[in-house]
From TrEMBL:
InterPro entries: DUF2087 (IPR018656). The lineage of its organism: Bacteria, Pseudomonadati, Pseudomonadota, Alphaproteobacteria, Rhodobacterales. It comes from Pseudotabrizicola alkalilacus. Residues 84-154 form the DUF2087 domain. Pfam families: DUF2087 (PF09860). This is DUF2087 domain-containing protein.
Length: 174
């Protein structure tokens, strides 16, 4: 489920914090998440969080990318200290994420022969199976392959937030 970012306009910070303190002191125990969100919304001059959201235009509300940190951590275990894919993950979701990191290392807008793409992939993995990497990239439409399977071209597409985070971590290792 994507989370919506709701900006909170506060005209007077002093009045806001004074109101927030009064609302918090009136609570017998520490408020829960939703109760605290309602307290903050009331301190900003709204009836509750729903009222705050209702005053926002759709352009002001942008979905925040929610990273699956556990998946990124799980995939990172398959990469060595130099940023090479050391083992092929057993889970399909981890394979797809790992391949996206290798996809980022392919040259953009360049037609590669099968030998060239294999050589490039061999530099970035150490388990000796460039064919499975090529096939997976073709299945995920990360690269296109000519009908005679001789030429490969990287497909330009924005990576997922998880892939972007993984690529950033692996770039720091190289």
């Amino acid at each position: 489920m994507t989370r919506t970012v709701t900006p909170l306009p506060v005209a007077d910070l002093s009045a806001f914090t004074r109101s927030l303190r009064q609302h918090l002191q009136a609570q017998p125990t520490a408020p829960g998440h939703l109760a605290l969100m309602n307290i903050v919304a009331r301190a900003a001059g709204f009836r509750n969080v729903q009222h705050l959201r209702a005053t926002q235009t759709p352009a002001q509300q942008t979905p925040a990318p929610v990273l699956d940190q556990a998946q990124i951590t799980a995939v990172l275990r398959h990469f060595d200290a130099q940023g090479r894919l050391a083992t092929w993950p057993a889970r399909t979701g981890l394979q797809r994420l790992a391949v996206r990191a290798l996809w980022a290392r392919l040259p953009a807008r360049v037609v590669l022969t099968e030998r060239q793409i294999s050589d490039t992939l061999n530099r970035w993995h150490s388990f000796g199976d460039a064919a499975i990497l090529r096939r997976t990239m073709v299945e995920l439409k990360l690269v296109t392959r000519s009908p005679d399977c001789r030429d490969y071209t990287r497909v330009e597409a924005a990576p997922t937030p998880e892939a972007r985070a993984l690529i950033t971590v692996l770039e720091s290792r190289t």
